[in-house]
Amino acid sequence: MNSNAVLLAFGLTLIAGLSTGIGSLLAFFAKRTNTRLLSGVLGFSAGVMIYVSLVDILPHANSILRASMGDRTGSWVSFISFFGGILLIAIIDKLIPSSENPHESRRVEQMGQNYCDIKGNNMHLMKMGVLTAVAIGVHNFPEGIATFIAALKDPSLGIAITIAIAIHNIPEGIAVSVPIYCATGDRKKALVYSFMSGLSEPLGALLAYIFLMPILSDQVFGIMFALVAGIMVFISLDELLPTAREYDEPHIATYGLVCGMALMGISILLFM
Questions:
Q1: Of 21-25, 88-92, 132-136, which one has max mean pLDDT?
Q2: Can you tell me the mean pLDDT for 74-86?
Q3: pTM as predicted
Q4: Residue 10 and residue 178: Cα distance in Å, rounded?
Q5: How far apart are the first and last CA of the chain?
Q6: Angstrom distance (rounded) from CA 111 to CA 174
Q7: How far is CA 215 from CA 142, 208, 230, 248, in A?
Q8: With left for phi above 0 and alpha for psi between -120 and 50, is residue 120 left, alpha or beta?
């Protein structure tokens, strides 16, 4: 495997993970949440991930597995791996307490003193912020593997997925920052926790490199690619679109979804 390709894959995963810090910065410096914009870009991110998963990644995985394992066996392994990815991320979601759900939408207006005073107990807020950061870290771990594997296969595909996941991580940064800032009054501490919650993505990439690279064959690559497709479809349907709809009217999220699909489809056609 080309070392430059590996370094690029790591770099893209790091960018995707640390974008949680963008959410913190928005929470610190923006006076109000631009709900229409956030709803649109979250829908756009979902469109990119759904389209590229179902039109590019899964068919590619199926093709690799059928070529290396035979049509029937390869197709079944591709099918099982895709839904295995969905099951993996669904189990992770199930294990995260609902009260610390990192995908519960929060807004930058909640940085205001009134919100912090109303919420009351500082220890409770600090605990909520830390647990949210941990929940995001656990949840983002397989996303790091997905970004890394996709970038190894095709750098342009990796860049598209990085952008989509980076957009997806912005509200998560807000979700960490709001309670920690309200508990401590310390913007720096809130920013640090927000950035740290995103470090699980490059950690996922590192572990994928350590454990998968030595055994990377056509079969392993095909299985991982199908898993990645399943993970990204579930994230889009279970997290991105519901969060986008919470921020603003459903039509904005849908328009963003269609635009994301169209842009991803055009980019795939242009680079065929």
A1: 88-92
A2: 95
A3: 0.70
A4: 29
A5: 22
A6: 10
A7: 19, 11, 22, 46
A8: left
